[in-house]
Design goal:
The chain has 452 residues and is of the alpha+beta class. It has two domains: 129 residues, Jelly Rolls; 300 residues, DD-peptidase/beta-lactamase superfamily (Beta-lactamase, 3-Layer(aba) Sandwich). Helices cover 28% and strands 20% of the residues. The protein has a six-stranded mixed beta sheet, with helices on both faces. Strands 1-5-8-3 form a four-stranded antiparallel beta sheet, with no helix packed on it. α2 packs antiparallel against α14, α3 crosses α5 and α4 packs across α5.
């Protein structure tokens, strides 16, 4: 017997393909009367039930489920199914995130039908959910902003960067900069709170979120997501990143959804925003995947289906948004050993460390994979005379219309350490492979010389 997975609830369970969402879009679906709710003891062995359901009445099956179990069902009947928790809230059953008593509701939006239904519970293949912790309740552990002091000294450097861009004819309104002196706790910026499209900078935030889940016990081991995480951070790979966001939120890509199905999916995808927003990252939006994603096939070249739905019907569409202040803050908390925990901050620092040796990064074909050094902040720091005394961590992003990076640059003797975040939302920056290296070298020369 083939058991079909109930992946999204609020939808229906009959073989009509794309028409099922429309079919199950009934409003004011009544909750079953107590006498119409049958108590079941579900386990791995499938239980068969049958009955009659008509418009205006529903049938329910109550059952106990443990954390990490998923609900499976099989039916050839034209019925719709929803799952409720004891508070009568719609929930997802793949897997259940809390040990509780749930109720499966069977209904039809019109007419009357006889149905046959087979149900069972099994352990989810996503074994990391076998815990009482619920991902949507997690909040980033650093709740308050870093206590950094505004600095005239650093503001001089930031102004020099803006002037450099203006001198080259670049639009400075499209530019945001944040500069933090890690040793002194000082900060300066140019439009640092302006929310901008972050491109692959978003992957830095997803890395922190999945390590927070690991710390909370939602995952049993990093090996469960290590391959995708490494692809996402080391190569800025969109396929690995897509799977990481799926694993964090449980809201996968696919065809468009409607009604309750879409609302449940959207709430799950919004978990990643709430994780950071509750910790002071105001206005941040990081719930959208980065494209293209080849393995998604029909959905992979650009946002389509539910990945397009989440962008709204506005022009311009809703997109990911991060400020340089937020990117610099997160990098600051990582290098300070505060993000998630000292242990996981250290792991993240290792993954963000870039090899500045020219013989390494010059071999990367930008037509085949992302080169995080060429045209970015690390390129002008790759001279052999500098390599022996520089620690360089970064995450960069690049599209045909934008260029962005957040980097931590420090001397190995501890004499200077700073974070530079630069976001540029204009094609002139995207096409210029010299401007970011020029920014970086200017800041480096100023920061290593504290007497300027």
């Amino acid at each position: 017997m083939t058991i079909l997975l109930l992946a999204l609830l609020g939808g229906c369970s009959f073989p009509f393909g794309k028409d099922k969402n429309q079919y199950c879009q009934g409003k004011n679906i009544p909750f079953p009367n107590p006498q119409d709710i049958k108590s079941l003891t579900l386990g791995e062995q499938a239980i068969a039930e049958s009955g009659v359901v008509a418009q205006g009445s529903t049938v329910g099956y109550a059952f106990q489920a443990e954390v990490g179990q998923k609900l499976n069902y099989e039916t050839n009947s034209n019925i719709c199914i929803r799952i409720y928790n004891p508070n009568r809230q719609l929930v997802d059953g793949d897997p259940f995130l809390k040990e509780d008593r749930y109720m499966l509701q069977v209904y039809v939006p019109k007419g009357k039908t006889t149905f046959d239904l087979k149900m069972n519970l099994s352990i989810s293949s996503s074994s990391h959910f076998q815990t009482q912790a619920e991902p949507q309740q997690l909040v980033y552990n650093i709740k308050s902003l870093p206590q950094l002091k505004s600095s005239d000294r650093l503001n001089v450097i930031v102004t020099q960067l803006v002037n450099l861009a203006a001198k080259q004819g670049k639009p400075t309104d499209a530019l945001s900069i944040t500069l933090i002196d890690v040793n002194s706790g000082e900060v300066a910026g140019y439009q640092p709170q302006r929310l901008r499209y972050p491109a692959s900078i978003v992957k830095l935030f997803w890395m922190v979120a999945i390590y927070a889940q690991l710390e909370a016990g939602i995952w049993q081991s990093e090996t469960e997501f290590a391959s995708d995480l490494n692809q996402m951070i080391y190569q800025s790979d969109n396929q690995g990143a897509s799977r990481i966001l799926d694993q964090i939120t449980g809201a996968t890509s696919g065809s468009r959804l409607t009604g309750d199905e879409y609302e449940i999916w959207l709430d799950k995808r919004q978990q990643i925003n709430r994780f950071f927003q509750a910790a002071g990252y105001q206005g941040i939006n990081i719930n959208q995947k980065t494209f293209p994603i080849p393995y998604l096939k029909d959905y992979g070249e650009r946002p389509t289906g539910r990945d397009a739905q989440i962008r709204g019907n506005t022009e311009p569409p809703i997109r990911n948004k991060i400020s340089t202040e937020q990117a610099a803050r997160l990098m600051y908390e990582i290098v300070q050993g505060e993000a998630v925990s000292q242990e996981y901050s250290n792991l993240m620092k290792q993954k963000l460390t870039r090899d500045l040796r020219r013989e390494v990064w010059e071999k990367i074909d930008i037509n085949q994979e992302f080169n995080p050094i060429l045209g970015f902040l690390g390129e002008s720091l790759s001279a052999p005379s500098l390599l022996t005394n520089i620690e360089f961590l970064s995450k960069a992003g690049w599209t045909k219309n934008t260029r962005q990076e957040v980097a931590y640059i420090a001397s190995k003797d501890g004499s200077f350490a700073y974070i530079l975040a630069v976001f540029a939302e204009d094609k002139s920056y995207a096409e210029d492979f010299q401007i970011f290296p020029q920014f970086s070298r200017l800041v480096y020369e100023r920061m290593k010389n504290s007497s300027f």
